[in-house]
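ugh finaly. both done.
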Amino acid sequence: MSKNLKLSKKSIALISTVGLFLLVGFIGIPELTRNLLFYPDAPTANFPIPNNETEARLQDLEYFENYVRGYDRSFHFRARGNALSQINELRKDVDKLSQAGFELAISEVVALGENGHSNVWNHSRAKRYPAMPYQGYWFDDGYHIVATTSEYVSLLGARVTHIGDTDIEVIKDAFRRYYGGEDSGFIAYAFPFLIQNTAFLFELGFINNKLNLDVTIINNEGSVEKSHIKAIPPQKDRHIQSPWRWLVPEWDHDHNKQFIGFSNDRNYDPLYLKTNDEFQLSRLSDLKILYIQYRQNNDGHQMSISEFNKKIRQEISSFKPEVLIFDQRFNGGGDYTKTADLMFEIPELMPEGSRVYAIAGHETFSAGISSLGFLKDALHNELIIVGRRIGDSPLSWGETNDFILPNSGIEMTAARGLHDQLYGCEDWIQCYWTDFKYPAAVGSLEPDIPVPFTFADYKAGVDASLSSIISIESSN
């Protein structure tokens, strides 16, 4: 009997020791597991030095399979099968492809994942090839030139209708297969870089010379004219910025002396273009409206995002607005946790009977979309969204990691964590764990009041989205 008791005590001691180790381990396990699941290092590329270009590309394709087979988690099984089949086809003709052709082929495979966060990087590849001597932006009334080199300043504001002999709509449709997200995200984030790349235009047969080509425009007087232009040679140190930034007067343009923006030296009246800062807070006192603008979900150059959130809380408390407007149209993302708490607090902060609007656009992306979802969920779907469709689906893969092909240097993002603000995320393996702290299921983030974003309004200094809100509130 005592022997059994002694063994029992040993067992208890052993169990206690194991339990202690498990407890200590459990404290560190969630963070370790989270990093392994969502932020693992890319596979190591252990290849010998290639003997020629063909061998280098075959190595790249072998390494690229890691991306498709699971490092990027957005591929569903049929898309993964199609992607692997395309990689196998590429192997057969890899020696026949130009550099641009190989990069387009890789982009097409990546796009099969149909995920906005999973694409070949635009900024880095834009420096590898000749480029148009202008920057364009796709408005709802066409593709307009918003910045040029000094040689082509007369083209500022013109609408491009043809490159070579091909209608720009046809070119847009041809480039669509090289981007994996929504149409709105393609227009905002991919198309302006793809159509600026003369090597890609040449590869697809739209022009017959990468350095000298013709474009047809409708100039500012409404006349059609054909312009012969010279492309900018590849420049590894060329400053690249998102197309929408050229819309803001003097936004970071001092870093890019090569281009002159249409917005330069213009004294714009609309609030959304009023400041070069990442954040803005303004009172429209006559209508008791508080206007809040986020251009990113990270700290700004002038102010941290936590400071800005604090200012918002203070301003709501002192001003007691009847209407709150969150302008997220150029919020391309960052860290959604930096605004999530504020979004869920808004119903408690705002006076009873107040109304909340959000302005969205094609550049609203990633954490910018999450912020909209949190706000709409907190307001029990009473948020009124105005403007254009957001740049991605509220159900998409995020939490990205870098993935670089070892020889060509083609860079892409691999998405690892699922976010589902349409129906709510509940899968502990696929869903990003922080979403469980900030659950949201809103059904839709489509605009309740669709408002186009046109060059005509931009040129005239009109904010049609804000004007729509003011019109509604003025009539109440």
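ok and the 2nd:
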Amino acid sequence: MASIRKRGNTYQIRVSCGYNTSGDQVVQIQNWTPDAGMTQKQIEKELNRRAVEFENACKFGFQSTVIKFQDFAEQWFREYAPAKLKTQTIRSYHSSEAKVYKAIGHMRMDKITTRLLQQFVMDVANEKRFNRKGEPMPPYAPKTVRNYITFISTVFDYAVRMQMLSDNPCRNVVIPSIRSKKRDIYSLEEVQQMLELFEQETEANYKYTIFFTLAAFTGLRRGELLGLEWKDIDWKHNMLSVVRTSEYTKEKGIYTDTPKTESSQRVLKLPDELMQKLKAFQEWQNGCKHELGSKWIECDRLFTKTDGSPMGMRQPYKFFERFCKKTGMRFVNIHSFRHFNASILISNGVDVKTVQGCLGHSSATTTLNIYAHSFQAAQVRAMDSVADCILKRDTKSSA
């Protein structure tokens, strides 16, 4: 609410515009001197009109004209991000701060233009990079460049929502497109061989063999696998519910979060053979729990440390790395099991919407973009089958 006080022949209109990033109150002041000959009633009427206009100007335009991008972004991290975004997303945005603040952090929000942001994107995409030894490094990947502009755009979206700005200058920025790439995926024969080798592993590695077996059969993300709890399994109907994920940050340690997107919460049907393996694994874990007694930390997770607490994010990776070195199996990262699962679904003619649902993608477009190569290969096979029918080819005899 504006306050008015008289100082000699001049009236001072003061409006509080909230607090800055340091916690100090921000006050805007406008002075007005009435024209000679104005009556007191005219002065009061004009003062009230000016006070309302000035208050609205401060409310909807003042902050955008003085606050710098870095100050507002830091305020956004405190006010908005913790309540609306996932911890990993916030962490990703924090990793973008240094480069973004160096480029535009010192600039007023209303002075940052689309052209300036376009130049920033081009500079990042063409930046020459070197490692600590001074050796040349590849340029930033398109996805990394997109992450920088996404952070900036998210902050500007908040400013528009707060009616500080009328438009987001990121809206028309052209960012590098992310081309689908051919992924390094295990073949069906490799996974089958791996499952046979798992049977020969020691009891100490039992939980890891179940982890990777489940990864191959379900295509779950690492965090989703580590977040599974025994109550998520419907033993009667062979159903598995994906309703949480296990995550880690240096600040919070291991913590439980909701899945990546709303679509990531899903239910999968498991084959009888896999259900039998899970049942045997549960009995094994119960035996470990009995041996440890009161020292066991109950968390209901499928995959735990030796004391029953949630398994760390890197434990499966370390086992798999050792396993591949010992057996001579080709080593590909854990996420490759998710790609393997998707490729098997696609090669067997499963439609894109079903694949999307199984993998928990937010849209079919995401699925198509990630697995464009696999779908193209499936389309080639589909066209061959049409030709076989038209030309009356005997596919059995040719095989």
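summary for the 2nd one i guess: Residues 61-65 have pLDDT under 50 and may be disordered.
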